[in-house]
Amino acid sequence: MKTIIILFSSLAFILLGNSAPAPVLDFEGNNIRAGKRYYILPTLEKEEYGGLDLKVGKKPCSDGISRSSADDNGLSLTVNPVNNKKGLITVSTDVNLKFTDSTGCNESNVWKLIYEKTMKRYAIVLGGVEGNPGQNTLYNWFKIAKAKNGYKFVFCPTVCSKCKVKCSDIGFVTDKDGVPRLAFSNDPYVFNFYGVG
C-alpha cells in the first residue's frame, strides 16, 4: 500500500511540476524580468527591418506600431505581468507591454488594441492603461507565446473571466499607406528579446 501511495505522490508531483508555465528567455537564455528594458528584434537574419517603432506619418502616436530601419534597434520596452510578485515573465501569461523610450506622445506608452476601420482589423496603438486587470482594461493585455526560433505576441487575455475575447496572433500587416503595422495576423511576427544595457 505504501508503494502505491508513494508512486501516486511522485506521479502527481511530476504532472503538477510540468504544468507550470515556462519562463520567457532572452536571446542569451536569461529569464525575462518585469520592469527590465528589452529590444524586440526579428529572429531571422534575412529580415530587412530592425526593431519596433511608431509609424511615421501625420499622427505617429495614434497610427500604431511599425518597424524601424534595419540598422536600428527601435524603441525598448518593458513587460509587466498581471501578477508581479516574483517579477518573472512566463509563457502565455497576461502582460502589459510598454515602450520605455520617449515617444513624444501625450498618451501613455502602454500598448492597447483598437479596431482600425481603414485596415478592417484590430491593430496595436499606444494609450493603454498599465495594471488594473479586468473588463475595463481588457484590450491592454497581451501574451508572449513560444514560436519557432523565438517568441510571438498573442492577444487572448484572461484577466476578465466573463468577457468574450477573440484571440489572435500579432504580426505585421500593411496599412493603406503601405506601412507594416502590428495587428491581428495569421502570420505572427517572430522575435527575440535583447536586454538593454
TrEMBL record:
Organism superkingdom: Eukaryota
Pfam families noted in UniProt: Kunitz_legume
Residues in the signal sequence: 1-19
Keyword Amino-acid biosynthesis in annotation: no
Keywords: Signal
PROSITE patterns (alphabetical): SOYBEAN_KUNITZ
Alphabetized GO MF terms: endopeptidase inhibitor activity
InterPro entries: Kunitz_inhibitor_STI-like_sf, Prot_inh_Kunz-lg
Protein family per UniProt: Belongs to the protease inhibitor I3 (leguminous Kunitz-type inhibitor) family.
Protein name: Miraculin
